[in-house]
Amino acid sequence: MSSDQSNESIKPLSGHCHCGKISFTVSPPFAHNAVCHCVDCRRSSGALAVHWAVVSEESLVLDPSVSPDDLTTYTGKTGSQRQFCRVCGTGLFFRNQQVIPGMVDIQATAFTEETPAPAPGAQIWVKERIPWWNALKDMKEFEQFPG
């Protein structure tokens, strides 16, 4: 088991995009389970960081109702591919055959509440982390939007 892997749950996990058009299951173990701070992930997601769970390509099973046209694929200048739901725009999958051949990264926040991803075991690309990331722990917290 790699140092950034957390396999608290070996049962299959289910997930879907925001609108529900794309649903899938994956079977652990995860090759990696980490929060990525790289600029590419932050820009493509619009988030401070992205939690990725990496599995073998064979363990990702799309629901039979999902057609290839339901996913939009963006290919970056390095050849990596990001896939999004064409309806709601939810980022779901990332592939980079040069770095992790035969594997697919799944945005772990797409897993359902009933089968959530285990907590990440590492943070990667910390050299590109938002400079004020560590200040988050000292900020006020609200259970819901306060205004």
From TrEMBL:
Pfam families: GFA. One of its GO terms (molecular function) is carbon-sulfur lyase activity. Belongs to the Gfa family. Residues 13-134 form the CENP-V/GFA domain. This is CENP-V/GFA domain-containing protein. It comes from the Eukaryota. PANTHER family: CENP-V_GFA DOMAIN-CONTAINING PROTEIN-RELATED, GFA DOMAIN-CONTAINING PROTEIN. InterPro entries: CENP-V/GFA, Mss4-like_sf. Keywords: Lyase, Metal-binding, Zinc.
